[in-house]
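Morning run. Coffee first, then this:
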Amino acid sequence: MTFKNVRVVNGAAAGWQLGFSATLDDCTAEGCATEGFSTNSLGGAGPLASHIRFNRCQAIGNGTDGFMNFGNVWLFDLHNCESRLNGGHAFNIGYGWMRIVESNYEHGQAGTFINGKTNQIFYDRDSTKRPRILGPWSKLDVAASLTNVALATLDPPGAAGAVNTVKMDRNGSVVGICILIRNNNDARTAGTLTVEALKNGAALGTPETVALNGATPLAADNSPINPGVNTYVSGDTIGVRVTTDGAWAPATADIDVWVAVVDD
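And here it is:
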């Protein structure tokens, strides 16, 4: 979805509140009661590996933060944006990652640039690091009693050996993993399904895993792991495998999995 040249002024809450992948071109939030641009939780449906790109957007004079990622969107990608004279942070994050490229800010009354999460917010002025999302890896009709079955990166899957992994072309770190069942009607009803990110076909030093179970029947992600922990170098491959216990149901569930990385 793309929004172009939309201006929100004096909103009673946040100017923009998004929970899905989108592109915003030349959009503005000005004088709104809380955030200029923020995310929502989609009613608690769970995390989505979404990516919002902001091109030449402006957050001006809003009550709290200019740009704030609360949840359900993995990556805020800001290019040539402005965050000026907002009441809170110019850029803030409580979930996922934020990349800020050729963007400007002026402190509002709180006088704060970001919330200090330097491992989740990457500003090109200070860092060459680039967060991005790999995937999805997919599997249709996930059965019970699977053990370390590789997922394919095409849907429907193609030749197994050709499409199971992503070959990295620079150094970096794996920082997160997320899973989503495509159809709400196929949400987990019994057992546990676990997916794990791999480097060169093996588990990472600090395991990157996430599970669907009674607490997270439809979607889940892990807590972000800081860059520099699970590193890769150019030429390494990143993949995903799935394991289910004998009680897993339903066997009709189709899953998609994404891996978050930060290139150096």
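The first strand starts at residue 2 and ends at 4. Good start to the day.
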